Every structure is written in structure tokens, then in C-alpha cells.
Please model this.
Amino acid sequence: MRLSEYTVTEAGPSAPIWARRIHEHQVPHVGNQAQRVVIVATVRALKLHGGVPLKELAKPNVECARQGRRKPGKNTSKHPPFRTAVVVAINHFSNDTPEEIQFI
Model:
């Protein structure tokens, strides 16, 4: 982090755990706080979090995506490291419907 203008750390599916690690272990040594948190969302993941069974994820379901969006917010709002600007990126796939993308 000292050698470049930007540093990107990928957290994977356990973002709150990794964020805590970064802020508790890496940031104190460098003395620099994170400026942004990027959450990459997929329609499929939102529907899965919203209760759609794995076999039915290919079917359009905006309502379950709406319900599923609350889970990442709940996860990140519990942890102080996420009290920074949040950017949401959409990882778009060919079977995502325009209505689902518009919702996100």
C-alpha cells in the first residue's frame, strides 16, 4: 500500500471478515484508511439470498432479488470498517432479465 497510489484487496465471499482483518492488521501498519468499498453483486446471488432454490435461479424473479439485497447490507452494516463510501458493481450474465438489472 505504500508503493502505489491505489491498492485493491479482494475479499471473496466473507467480505465482512476480510474487511475486519484489513482494517485491524494492514491499515494500522500503513496509517491509511480505505477510501471505497466495492460490492460486486449478481442477480443470481441476490435471488439465492432471497430464498430462490438453486434449481430455479435461471427463472426471472425480481421480488426474491429485492429480498436478497438486504442480506449484503445487513452483513456490511454490522462492521465498522464498512463505514466508508460503498460502490455497487453488477456482474451481468446473459440470463439476467432487463427487469432484474433495472431493479439493481
The chain has a mean pLDDT of 75. The chain has five helices and two strands.
